């Protein structure tokens, strides 16, 4: 079924949504945001991703609506192309090849056939604003080489460029000056602020710029938190400005409302400020937005704002300053101490998120599921503060338990540390704090692992610490006369010659515990906590330690700091083999014997997949990333792949994800990127121009059907409708929050009807004799339909839901037919 | 420069009074400033903002309004209900007219300058006709319910806007009836205040009325319909003053928080004629209420309770970088308030209503350069002399021997004899002053304390011989025929032969005391004289002008000296010409004839005429004398101007003897500490 291309490293979502300003569609129904090489189309009402516009081969750096056709979207990328999309259908219309690396894109209504881009031509940090003439041609790929220069020596960020008064002028800021270029006069005025060298503590560097949509007024944001409103800037001498000052730190972005009556500003305070009439005294606030506001944009219809935040989220805000939706991507703005983990229940990727939180991130849907507040303290965002850091986390007992370690070290001797154990609560579907251990060790905890053996009567946790001890914690009964409770207590403390304990690892069956003490590996019996044996290779401190699995469970693997990978045989207590490999990441696959190791060299990182039983690697991929790879994890596949080639067999059961130093989440795939991520709900797109709110799908269609009954003329059009409508009805039913759904009695008929493959109107009048004939017809229909979908969507595991619907067995269909015979007309009366 | 022992005096407890009104006259480029004690000062903006004239205050004459009328006539009105016109030549009050409407809160001159309008406590608006000699009551406008706090004429002269409490009235001048009554919102940041006081109104030629009020609002009204057009909330406290430029393209308002806001009329887009008023820049140069603002073509002028007069140039209007292009802050009067008796080491301080006599402390300790020496004897407050009556002291002087004190108010002249018996001091008033000695603008004793020179406000100079307990009038120098200008500055030569006197604008006259006649007149110069002194032995007259030029004129030769010609030819250092405040005192070293000692408020300078003059490339403000550098370098970098900026603000500095200087400082912080507390403002991060 799957063609075996070569395995390639691909990005797998988790890209920055806050890289550029988000853009609203003209009717405010959709919001577009850049996401790595893609453009994502989200619904503003439901936060759902409707489309992913794929086609760029490098980072997308700018998106703008086509001013001449608001159903089209321009995007530009580092790959040197400008692409025009039909965002409603998710279709690429045209590609304009410019050839330079494009840093930002601007469109103007008055400049019909040209757009503006920021390029750097010669020197690496000298950027130019140029206008690109987009030639009219019917072909798909067009060369657009006609560039005309507008402004030189500008800032590369698109926040520092703004077009004003219907394209009469363009304002650019950089360092300490504002330049305004007037297109008609072809002159540039430059206004310079006295630089910070002249005045003490005056950090008045420009940071961003916005132009008033109706008046000749330019708003600039500054590093010291001031906003200046410039007027009369067409006169070099009589120019004047007003200051607005509320922010205490850098103004990150500015935006005017559509009519220019209010100005929005945001910064590190995480407060959206609305300056009404641009006066200092008349301002409104939307506080507690969670993270630094990076970008602000305003919908062309004027009813919505949105803010992009440094924690990779987009908040859609209503005109009355109420946050209405949050689009949250993978949080990336903190150091990853916990590494990558897989939540055994949700199969979500778990890692450090917001400060003090663990984030649960769905790899399939590229969105954050939820945040678990571990530290449970107010986060104070200020320079120089030493924060409590969440340093370790581990899941145990099939996701029933979560152990976390947090620490804060102000001085060398003052270590504050807490270990928390969280129990999964089935009722609330979340983790609840069970046990809090303050100072579980005297020094930093270096490793944390649960015993994940299948038949384990007592959950066991082992912590290893720099203080030279490892501690075994077990769950005990903590009940008293008031309630039944369980809690964790320390069961055993082990040490080995006062060496620092650096790693710990349980064998697959839980019978053995391996603890690394600097250069020495010790093996302990988990029943009696007796030291069984030690291994020492004198090759540097142990950096990674893991047991083999399944058939290879008799092997123990250790990677040392001096670049030696050792494999010990536990039965013979001898070194089986060793290899010279500078291992950075070593991860065992939970579903196979395979172990993945990533080594670091000066040119890049290499991946080795091997079985502990044999020193020959199964698979080698050189240079998977130029950067240092920090963490990796195997994620079990829901549906196993069936690679026949021996080299790719390690990808059958699980998929390997890894995180580089710049925090890009990458994986290995054989599919081309176009296939890789398919929109989960391609059919959700609105074929009609009616508003596609959830209510529309349920109520709008219902009304339509009623209309149909009266208006026979439209009957023919309806032939296709029930079929195409099938998926939306169900998916909407599943996606709509429960509190906005109509009553179940009402939905029932709708749902059942949607499963039937016949025409609604006919079925009501038709006689039972026609059933057979119709049946045939319908099955034909559905076959055709099936083919059709296959053609358009390619084959995909995500379309499973659809397949199931079409593969209704005959008996099921008959059952449904019975339902149909029941008179549901009473529902309409309701 | 030489080493001196310096008496650093900081016990002059002088607090200037707050500024109440400012009025700018465009034709003469002069600014009239009235203070809360009733003093009115005239600043010449063309002459580096020099305070060239002043009218002493009066306890009962609190000025509430000040305005210029046609032909450089200055009127003021106050809470005693009188309208006063000042005589700018003789420096006295021409006449006072009671308006019979209770205290007067506001006054405005019609655009043509022929009519005067006053707003009174009883709610009446009274129209006066300005005649060449006096003012004539014409009629009342419709009487309003409460006091009229502000008035503004429409530039055409047909309508008048009057700000009262809670509302603004628009009057038709012809009929005198109120055309519109515009009620002002009392709401203040959502809280209803008791009253909303309209502190200022401005009528623009397009019919817009701008009002500022106690709720912190600047509002724009359409006077044709009587409706509110736009509202700017700019302060949490009162907005107390407003001034509009002549072109009506910008105006300035002052708030009780000490902030001055500039509003400008800017076009909405470059290609449309539509314009809007935009608040542009705030200026925070004051700590207290800004009670008065003025708008000159090139600068915003503001003054208030914190006693500073601030002149903030509009950079876009300034064509060339000159003296006008910098921010100016005028705090101290440009005249001497301190006189010194060298023989007895006494200082006489002049306050508005009293005089203080102090004996300087002394020390026996010695120390290195820059050391602070401990006092063996503290300074002594010898005398506190209160004036009788409500009038302020105009001038005062103590004789060099320390046994005579003379001072003058507007109506009386006082002369006292001091007797010292060990530590006791007795004061004896010299009675029976002659009738012509009623009011003096400047008093000076001769070096040997035998003669008293008095410049009266009629332009005449009286010479009086002093004897033990009595006096004799020797002579009166009458002013030149045709001029009535008063003399404000006097200088006498140490040998007692020559007397130099200068008026506000004309040249310096030199009289021979021996022959009791005019000796010569120094050629007149465009800028007013700020300080005068005659050098011992050579009898060279040194004159400092408000444009920072210094001339040396030889009285015996009746011509400028060679040194003066040289420095005029070469020109002064550009930094010297850019200095902020005028030179207020000149003195000489008895043993070093080549030295001229002079000071302004921020520096003390010794000009050594024997050294080369600095050119624009040399460093004017040399640091403290370098000790480690070789003599060669020191000689190469040395120039005629030795400047010390250690003492500031410096009100007085003189040489007591060859090795001792006395410097009287008045730190600004001490003045602010004596002012009422400013409005508390929340400052971020505190």
TrEMBL record, chain A:
Keyword Transcription attached: yes
Protein's UniProt keywords contain Transcription regulation: yes
Bias (Acidic residues): 766-787
Cellular localisation: Nucleus, Nucleolus
Keywords, in A-Z order: Isopeptide bond, Nucleus, Phosphoprotein, Repeat, Ribosome biogenesis, rRNA processing, Transcription, Transcription regulation, Ubl conjugation, WD repeat
Gene3D superfamilies per UniProt: YVTN repeat-like/Quinoprotein amine dehydrogenase
InterPro entries recorded: Beta-prop_WDR75_2nd, WD40/YVTN_repeat-like_dom_sf, WD40_repeat_dom_sf, WD40_rpt, WDR75
WD repeats by residue range: 53-95
Domain of life where this protein originates: Eukaryota
Main location as per UniProt: nucleus
Annotated GO MF terms: RNA binding
GO cellular component annotations of the record: small-subunit processome
Domain WD repeat-containing protein 75 second beta-propeller: 340-663
Residue ranges, annotated region (Disordered): 762-802
GO terms, biological process: positive regulation of rRNA processing; positive regulation of transcription by RNA polymerase I; ribosomal small subunit biogenesis; rRNA processing
Physiological role: Ribosome biogenesis factor. Part of the small subunit (SSU) processome, first precursor of the small eukaryotic ribosomal subunit. During the assembly of the SSU processome in the nucleolus, many ribosome biogenesis factors, an RNA chaperone and ribosomal proteins associate with the nascent pre-rRNA and work in concert to generate RNA folding, modifications, rearrangements and cleavage as well as targeted degradation of pre-ribosomal RNA by the RNA exosome. Involved in nucleolar processing of pre-18S ribosomal RNA. Required for optimal pre-ribosomal RNA transcription by RNA polymerase I.
Subunit structure: Component of the proposed t-UTP subcomplex of the ribosomal small subunit (SSU) processome. SSU processome is composed of more than 70 proteins and the RNA chaperone small nucleolar RNA (snoRNA) U3.
Name the record gives this protein: WD repeat-containing protein 75
Origin species: Ailuropoda melanoleuca
Lineage, uppermost ranks: Eukaryota, Metazoa, Chordata, Craniata, Vertebrata
Gene that produces this protein: WDR75
Automatic annotation (TrEMBL), chain B:
One Pfam family cited in the UniProt record for this chain: WD40
SUPFAM superfamilies (UniProt xref): WD40 repeat-like
Keyword Transcription regulation carried by entry: yes
Coiled coil regions in record: none
Record-level GO BP terms: maturation of SSU-rRNA from tricistronic rRNA transcript (SSU-rRNA, 5.8S rRNA, LSU-rRNA); regulation of DNA-templated transcription
One CC-aspect GO term: 90S preribosome
InterPro entries linked to this entry: UTP4 (IPR046351), WD40/YVTN_repeat-like_dom_sf (IPR015943), WD40_repeat_dom_sf (IPR036322), WD40_rpt (IPR001680)
Superkingdom field: Eukaryota
Signal peptide stretch: none
Primary residence: nucleus
Keywords associated with the record: Chromosome, Isopeptide bond, Nucleus, Phosphoprotein, Repeat, Ribosome biogenesis, rRNA processing, Transcription, Transcription regulation, Ubl conjugation, WD repeat
SMART domains (alphabetical): WD40
Single GO molecular function: RNA binding
Entry's localization field: Chromosome; Nucleus, Nucleolus
Entry keyword Endoplasmic reticulum: no
Subunit relationships: Interacts with HIVEP1 Interacts with NOL11. Part of the small subunit (SSU) processome, composed of more than 70 proteins and the RNA chaperone small nucleolar RNA (snoRNA) U3. May be a component of the proposed t-UTP subcomplex of the ribosomal small subunit (SSU) processome containing at least UTP4, WDR43, HEATR1, UTP15, WDR75.
Entry-linked PANTHER family: U3 SMALL NUCLEOLAR RNA-ASSOCIATED PROTEIN 4 HOMOLOG
Role this protein plays: Ribosome biogenesis factor. Involved in nucleolar processing of pre-18S ribosomal RNA. Part of the small subunit (SSU) processome, first precursor of the small eukaryotic ribosomal subunit. During the assembly of the SSU processome in the nucleolus, many ribosome biogenesis factors, an RNA chaperone and ribosomal proteins associate with the nascent pre-rRNA and work in concert to generate RNA folding, modifications, rearrangements and cleavage as well as targeted d Involved in SSU pre-rRNA processing at sites A', A0, 1 and 2b.
Protein name stated in the entry: U3 small nucleolar RNA-associated protein 4 homolog
Origin organism lineage: Eukaryota, Metazoa, Chordata, Craniata, Vertebrata
